[in-house]
Amino acid sequence: MINSTGPRPESYREDIEAAKNFKTENDKENFYSEIKAAAESGWDFSSRWFILNGTNKGKFKDTKTRSIVPVELNALIFWNSKILSNFYRELNNTIKALEYEVIAMEWTNAVTAVLWNEEVGAWLDFDLLNHKKRNYFYPTNISPLWTGCYDKNQTDYFD
Protein backbone atom coordinates (compact mmCIF):
# COMPACT_ATOMS: atom_id res chain seq x y z
CA MET A 1 0.00 0.00 0.00
CA ILE A 2 1.32 3.43 -0.92
CA ASN A 3 1.00 6.05 1.78
CA SER A 4 0.35 9.57 0.63
CA THR A 5 0.31 12.07 3.45
CA GLY A 6 -1.86 15.12 3.84
CA PRO A 7 -5.18 16.12 2.36
CA ARG A 8 -6.15 15.69 -1.27
CA PRO A 9 -4.82 18.61 -3.33
CA GLU A 10 -8.12 19.00 -5.20
CA SER A 11 -10.12 19.20 -1.93
CA TYR A 12 -7.48 20.64 0.37
CA ARG A 13 -9.68 23.11 2.27
CA GLU A 14 -12.56 20.65 2.68
CA ASP A 15 -10.27 17.85 3.88
CA ILE A 16 -8.53 20.10 6.43
CA GLU A 17 -11.93 21.15 7.76
CA ALA A 18 -13.22 17.55 7.94
CA ALA A 19 -10.01 16.40 9.68
CA LYS A 20 -10.68 18.78 12.57
CA ASN A 21 -12.85 15.98 14.00
CA PHE A 22 -9.66 14.05 14.79
CA LYS A 23 -7.42 14.80 17.74
CA THR A 24 -4.05 13.37 16.70
CA GLU A 25 -1.98 13.88 13.57
CA ASN A 26 -1.93 10.11 13.07
CA ASP A 27 -5.75 9.98 13.09
CA LYS A 28 -5.87 12.87 10.60
CA GLU A 29 -3.38 11.12 8.30
CA ASN A 30 -5.43 7.91 8.46
CA PHE A 31 -8.54 9.90 7.56
CA TYR A 32 -6.78 11.52 4.60
CA SER A 33 -5.70 8.07 3.37
CA GLU A 34 -9.25 6.73 3.73
CA ILE A 35 -10.84 9.54 1.72
CA LYS A 36 -8.13 9.32 -0.93
CA ALA A 37 -8.89 5.61 -1.30
CA ALA A 38 -12.61 6.39 -1.56
CA ALA A 39 -11.94 8.99 -4.26
CA GLU A 40 -9.74 6.54 -6.18
CA SER A 41 -12.53 3.95 -6.06
CA GLY A 42 -14.88 6.25 -7.95
CA TRP A 43 -17.33 5.92 -5.07
CA ASP A 44 -16.21 8.94 -3.05
CA PHE A 45 -18.88 10.45 -0.80
CA SER A 46 -20.75 7.16 -0.67
CA SER A 47 -22.02 5.53 2.52
CA ARG A 48 -20.61 2.34 1.02
CA TRP A 49 -17.29 3.18 2.70
CA PHE A 50 -18.70 4.18 6.10
CA ILE A 51 -18.19 1.84 9.03
CA LEU A 52 -19.88 2.83 12.28
CA ASN A 53 -20.73 0.09 14.75
CA GLY A 54 -20.68 -2.47 11.95
CA THR A 55 -23.09 -0.50 9.73
CA ASN A 56 -22.87 1.97 6.86
CA LYS A 57 -24.87 4.55 8.81
CA GLY A 58 -21.89 6.76 9.61
CA LYS A 59 -20.80 10.16 8.45
CA PHE A 60 -17.91 11.35 6.30
CA LYS A 61 -15.54 11.02 9.27
CA ASP A 62 -16.43 7.30 9.44
CA THR A 63 -14.99 6.58 5.99
CA LYS A 64 -13.02 3.32 6.21
CA THR A 65 -12.40 2.44 2.57
CA ARG A 66 -9.21 0.52 3.34
CA SER A 67 -11.13 -1.79 5.70
CA ILE A 68 -13.66 -2.94 3.14
CA VAL A 69 -13.02 -5.73 0.63
CA PRO A 70 -15.02 -4.59 -2.43
CA VAL A 71 -16.72 -7.11 -4.68
CA GLU A 72 -15.92 -5.42 -7.99
CA LEU A 73 -12.19 -5.01 -7.28
CA ASN A 74 -11.90 -8.75 -6.68
CA ALA A 75 -14.00 -9.55 -9.75
CA LEU A 76 -11.71 -7.32 -11.83
CA ILE A 77 -8.56 -8.96 -10.45
CA PHE A 78 -10.02 -12.32 -11.50
CA TRP A 79 -10.82 -10.91 -14.94
CA ASN A 80 -7.30 -9.55 -15.35
CA SER A 81 -5.94 -13.02 -14.56
CA LYS A 82 -8.15 -14.48 -17.30
CA ILE A 83 -7.01 -11.81 -19.76
CA LEU A 84 -3.36 -12.53 -18.96
CA SER A 85 -3.95 -16.26 -19.30
CA ASN A 86 -5.49 -15.73 -22.75
CA PHE A 87 -2.69 -13.36 -23.71
CA TYR A 88 -0.02 -15.93 -22.83
CA ARG A 89 -1.98 -18.64 -24.62
CA GLU A 90 -1.93 -16.48 -27.79
CA LEU A 91 1.84 -16.20 -27.38
CA ASN A 92 2.08 -20.00 -27.05
CA ASN A 93 3.44 -19.66 -23.53
CA THR A 94 1.49 -22.52 -21.99
CA ILE A 95 3.26 -22.39 -18.64
CA LYS A 96 2.40 -18.72 -18.04
CA ALA A 97 -1.11 -19.24 -19.42
CA LEU A 98 -1.71 -22.05 -16.92
CA GLU A 99 -0.16 -20.01 -14.12
CA TYR A 100 -2.69 -17.22 -14.65
CA GLU A 101 -5.52 -19.72 -15.14
CA VAL A 102 -4.70 -21.16 -11.69
CA ILE A 103 -4.66 -17.65 -10.21
CA ALA A 104 -8.09 -16.99 -11.74
CA MET A 105 -9.45 -20.27 -10.35
CA GLU A 106 -8.04 -19.54 -6.88
CA TRP A 107 -9.46 -16.02 -7.03
CA THR A 108 -12.90 -17.39 -7.93
CA ASN A 109 -12.74 -19.76 -4.97
CA ALA A 110 -11.74 -16.91 -2.64
CA VAL A 111 -14.46 -14.58 -3.95
CA THR A 112 -17.03 -17.34 -3.49
CA ALA A 113 -15.80 -18.24 0.00
CA VAL A 114 -15.51 -14.69 1.33
CA LEU A 115 -18.00 -12.56 -0.61
CA TRP A 116 -20.82 -14.85 -1.82
CA ASN A 117 -23.98 -14.80 0.31
CA GLU A 118 -26.33 -17.66 -0.49
CA GLU A 119 -29.19 -16.09 1.48
CA VAL A 120 -29.36 -12.94 -0.63
CA GLY A 121 -28.09 -14.58 -3.82
CA ALA A 122 -25.36 -11.99 -4.39
CA TRP A 123 -21.80 -11.13 -3.50
CA LEU A 124 -21.36 -8.68 -0.64
CA ASP A 125 -18.48 -6.42 0.34
CA PHE A 126 -16.59 -7.64 3.41
CA ASP A 127 -15.90 -5.53 6.51
CA LEU A 128 -12.40 -6.30 7.81
CA LEU A 129 -12.94 -4.36 11.05
CA ASN A 130 -16.03 -6.31 12.10
CA HIS A 131 -15.17 -9.55 10.24
CA LYS A 132 -18.50 -9.81 8.43
CA LYS A 133 -20.20 -9.38 5.09
CA ARG A 134 -21.85 -5.99 4.58
CA ASN A 135 -25.50 -6.71 3.78
CA TYR A 136 -26.06 -3.67 1.55
CA PHE A 137 -26.83 -3.79 -2.15
CA TYR A 138 -24.83 -1.79 -4.67
CA PRO A 139 -24.71 -2.38 -8.44
CA THR A 140 -21.17 -3.70 -7.94
CA ASN A 141 -22.56 -6.66 -5.99
CA ILE A 142 -23.24 -8.44 -9.27
CA SER A 143 -19.93 -7.62 -10.99
CA PRO A 144 -18.77 -11.27 -10.75
CA LEU A 145 -21.53 -12.12 -13.24
CA TRP A 146 -20.08 -9.62 -15.69
CA THR A 147 -16.48 -10.80 -15.27
CA GLY A 148 -17.31 -14.52 -14.98
CA CYS A 149 -15.89 -14.76 -11.46
CA TYR A 150 -18.26 -17.38 -10.13
CA ASP A 151 -18.44 -21.13 -9.76
CA LYS A 152 -19.47 -22.40 -13.21
CA ASN A 153 -21.07 -25.41 -11.49
CA GLN A 154 -23.70 -22.95 -10.26
CA THR A 155 -24.65 -21.89 -13.79
CA ASP A 156 -28.25 -23.00 -13.27
CA TYR A 157 -28.43 -20.65 -10.30
CA PHE A 158 -27.41 -17.64 -12.41
CA ASP A 159 -29.50 -18.37 -15.54
TrEMBL record:
Keywords annotated in UniProt: Glycosidase, Hydrolase
Pfam families, A to Z: Trehalase (PF01204)
Gene3D superfamilies linked to this entry: 1.50.10.10
InterPro entries associated with the record: 6-hairpin_glycosidase_sf (IPR008928), 6hp_glycosidase-like_sf (IPR012341), Glyco_hydro_37 (IPR001661)
Keyword Hydrolase on entry: yes
Top enzyme category: hydrolase
GO molecular function: alpha,alpha-trehalase activity
UniProt-listed Enzyme Commission number(s): 3.2.1.28
Keyword Hydrolase: yes
Similarity comment: family membership: Belongs to the glycosyl hydrolase 37 family.
PANTHER family attached to this UniProt entry: TREHALASE (PTHR23403)
Protein name as it appears in the record: Trehalase
